[in-house]
Write a structure and sequence with these properties.
Blueprint: H1 9-16, H2 43-56, H3 59-64, H4 72-75, H5 79-87, H6 95-110, H7 113-140
Helix pairs in contact: 2-6, 6-7
Length: about 150
């Protein structure tokens, strides 16, 4: 009768995922914009972080090691975060934008770049529809939001 071999979880995981993931993307001009909380397109920063994550071979880390819920990427003191920050071609980030880009890397690692890009397309379409509706409402009755003042 054969014997069973049991491996520690971390060793088994390394064996299962021995081939390193790389994310290949089309030209950045073909991406749907990722608009940050600052209202700017963050695609150049996302592209830089994707390339850095590829070089450092950290996609498995993003996929398998979410940050602690009480820290997020902003306050988590992990060596991979420092490595990414140091290796970026253009680290023009605030703490907030860096953390936001790290969250995008996690989404890409867990889902795929294609799903990330599709999500941006949906968000952009919804955002544009809301802006168009607001413009239409303001054109129909620009004074509708004003309260009548008693004489």
């Amino acid at each position: 009768m054969g014997q069973y071999l049991t491996l520690p979880k971390d060793m088994a995981t390394k064996m299962i995922y021995s081939e390193k993931i790389q994310v290949n993307t089309p030209d950045i001009n073909e991406w749907h914009p990722f608009i940050s909380g600052y209202g700017i397109n963050m695609n150049p920063e996302i592209d830089d972080m994707i390339k850095t994550t590829n070089r450092l071979e950290l996609w498995e880390w993003f996929r398998d090691s979410p940050p602690p819920k009480d820290k997020g990427y902003s306050w988590w003191k992990h060596e991979n975060i420092d490595a990414i920050s140091k290796e970026l071609e253009n680290n023009n980030h605030s703490g907030s934008s860096f953390s936001m880009c790290m969250q995008q890397m996690q989404f890409i690692a867990e889902n795929s770049w294609e799903k990330w890009n599709e999500r941006n397309a949906r968000w952009n379409a919804e955002h544009e529809a809301k802006k168009a509706l607001a413009r239409e409402i303001n054109q129909m009755d620009p004074g509708a939001h004003l309260v009548d003042k008693p004489n």
